[in-house]
Amino acid sequence: MNTHEILKVLQEDIHTVIIATTDQKGYPYTCAIDMMLLEDESLYFLTARGKAFYDRLMKQSHIALTGLKGEDTMSSVAISLQGTIKNIGHERLDEIFEKNPYMKEIYPDEISREVLEVFQIDKCQGEYFDLSQKPIYRQSFVVNESLKKSGYYVGEGCIGCKMCYRVCPQKCIDISSKPVVILQDHCLHCGKCQEVCPKQVISRY
After folding, report:
1. Same domain? 68 vs 110
2. In this predicted model, what pLDDT tens digit does every residue of 101-136 receive, in sequence order?
3. Hey, what's the torsion of the CAs at 191, 192, 195, 201, to 10 degrees?
4. pLDDT at 148
5. Residue span of the signal peptide, if any (predicted)?
6. What 3 state SS string does 99-138 have?
């Protein structure tokens, strides 16, 4: 999947996500927010000026969020991202109400909608994680940022003992080469391979 397809799943299929923010003391807060619009790989959501959530957004430029869909754990797909936001006021508000008609039941007229302001997630880095596939599948993505690697890799000094492969829950290590190669798209990031490596040549990015 490309980045736009992942964000489309987040905005259309999942839609309601949990956003994490912090207050002025650094204490974490979460709340459920709908992803209202996707345009040119930017996500848009809104909130009312009177909410404490709005105050927290205005005092910081970063958020983190996770959206989840599926009937149970083993059928679930999760999309998480961390990024920067900016308040764009009433811009795109009419478009948001057009594409999300249920909002008219909550804010039925122009007077009530005046209190709403739109936020744009303009830069982010995230991950698509699919437990319904065997082996599991994960994919990193970025929007207007450079990708920061995560996970584990095998460095020089590997002796090809295959101990890492034996303990890997997903068997996502290619042992046909030396050093062996961790298949990043299927790795759980559990770190067990690093713990058992006799040469201690497995590191985390």
Report:
1. yes
2. 999 999 999 999 999 999 999 999 999 999 999 999
3. -70
4. 86
5. none
6. HCCCHHHHCCCHHHHCCEEEEEEEEEEEEEEECCCCCCEE
In order, the DSSP letters of the chain are --HHHHHHIIIIII-EEEEEEE-TT--EEEEEEE--EEETTEEEEEEETTSHHHHHHHT-SEEEEEEEESSSGGG-EEEEEEEEEEEEETTTHHHHHHH-TTHHHHS-SHHHHTTEEEEEEEEEEEEEEETTSSS-EEEEEEESSPPPP-SEEE-TT-----HHHHH-TT--EETTSSS-EE-GGG-----HHHHH-TT--EEE-
Looking at the fold, whether 28 and 10 belong to one and the same domain comes out as yes
Find out whether 76 and 67 touch, Cβ atoms under 8 Å.
no
Q: Give the CATH number of the domain where residue 125 resides.
A: 2.30.110.10
Q: How many domains does the chain have?
A: 2
Residues 162, 132 share a domain: no
Q: Is 162 in contact with 141 (CB distance < 8 Å)? A: no
Whether 101 and 53 share a structural domain: yes
Supply 130's token pair.
């699919």
Tens of pLDDT, residues 152-188: 999 999 999 999 999 999 999 999 999 999 999 999 9
Check whether residue 38 and residue 133 sit in a common domain. yes
- Domain span holding position 22: 3-143
